[in-house]
Amino acid sequence: MEVKLTSQAERILAILSPKTPDAALDQAAKITVDDTVSRFSFLYEKIRNVVDYKDEHLIRKGAILRILRRQLLLETKPEVIADRLIRELISARYLPNGAIVESAIEQVAGLVRKYLAVRKIGAGSERHLSWLLGLVAVEIEECLVDPAEERAFLTFLFDRLKDSIHVRNFNLDEHELHLQIYIACHRALVKADDEMLGYKLLRIYLPEWLSPQEWQEQPRPVAERLVAVERRIKLQLSHVLAHKFLRAVKPWGVSLGILRRVLKNNPERVSEFLEKPEALYRQIEQRAEAGYAEAKTKLRRGTFRAMIYLLLTKMLVAILVELPLEWLWYARVDHFALAVNLSFPPILMFWVGLLIKVPGANNTQRLIDGVKKLLGDEPLNGQEILAPTPRTKAKKFWFTLVYAGAFLVSFGLIGAILSAIDFTWISIVIFVFFLCVVSFFGYRLRLTAREAVVIEGKRRTLAVIADFFFLPILRAGKWLSISISRINIFIFIFDFMFEAPFKMFLAVLEEWFAFMREKKEELQ
Known about the structure:
Blueprint: H1 7-16, H2 23-27, H3 35-51, H4 59-74, H5 78-91, H6 103-121, H7 126-144, H8 148-161, E1 165-168, H9 174-189, H10 194-205, H11 220-237, H12 242-265, H13 270-275, H14 277-330, H15 335-355, H16 361-375, E2 383-386, H17 393-420, H18 425-449, H19 461-487, H20 489-522
Parallel strand pairs: 1-2
Helix pairs in contact: 1-8, 3-20, 4-5, 4-7, 5-6, 6-7, 7-10, 8-9, 9-12, 10-11, 12-14, 12-16, 14-15, 14-16, 14-18, 15-18, 17-19, 18-19
């Protein structure tokens, strides 16, 4: 007996149906790099990624942006920049060797050419151009890694949710409502950051960006409009209700994400699973349990990377700041305080990682329920987002005063305790600095471990009290982490004092290997 699929299941089946291979593409010349050179480049990237802490799904985009910045300093020809960029990405194993067609060089060169045309006009500040370059890096990644399937799943999720989420007590027109749901879908399903979302919104606000042949000869109008578009994009990404939209969308994004992984891991059984949901639900349960185990592994790996990063950074601060300042100010070095400051950040990071928990059985059942509803033809249950109640000026003043008091209490207690054990003010400042950074890292790792969580936990009294004292530390840690990422001296050393000459050496080495192969072939 033939089982009739729901229209939503048919959509998923169409997304995952095997595509007819492009014969011309298969026959096209591919870009390859030498395996020996690739090993060196891959090892370098592994080391660098420990120093430059990023979420794993953002590492390749970060590498594209970093290489692009360096090549734009060294080269002016878009074709040369594109060729070197792609080869470096393949060499570092961000892209498969022998799979990218040579015509991709011209495609990427076209994207670089757009950026150079806008930069030449000088319509925006350096920060604006840096923002735009981040969007170009996203565009290059999408050019090199086909996003068609991901885009189809995002469209599916958006279509299922766009009529089920409503906002109360806030003036939001339909276009802006759908835009916020669209942004939340990207954040929930693929964990898109602001650069990735910025590129998506750029396509909406400035569609001519995708047709450079129409404006590249006279780029001033587009370059000037880009400045205004940046402001519009940043306003949408920092919308006052953005977090509430994400909370409403996240359970559905997690459910669709696990459905996608199950079907992708069993391509020969996609039809069977969609026709016999019970088999699909069993597989989802197994996949969820495996995902929780993977989350633990990812958590350990993230904790280790953060510990190494903090240890290296702390040692550098001790050598360049703490030791010289204490010697100049006190004519001595407090070895106890120095030992505590050196060992505290990685040890605290270790314990933070150890105490983070992953989801359980109740969460798995909620995932299965979400998949059932997504695959059904019934509209999803309506969800209402309640906008924050407007506060009077007096209320804002008193709340701000209490919040400032929380800062004073939290940091005052820490300072008092450290002073009582004879820490100098220099050691106290450095201790507090790393306490804030470690706490924020730990919070980020906790969010990573809870990516698959769809059950909201209950707010307990103890947690509310803890938030009063720890929220200031987390806020300070976030600000410091952003500041550190801008002035990270290790990144400067790697990018400008080591990476550029090292990558040049590898490029020369690859050309030498190619020359040797040619000479060897002449002997045959």
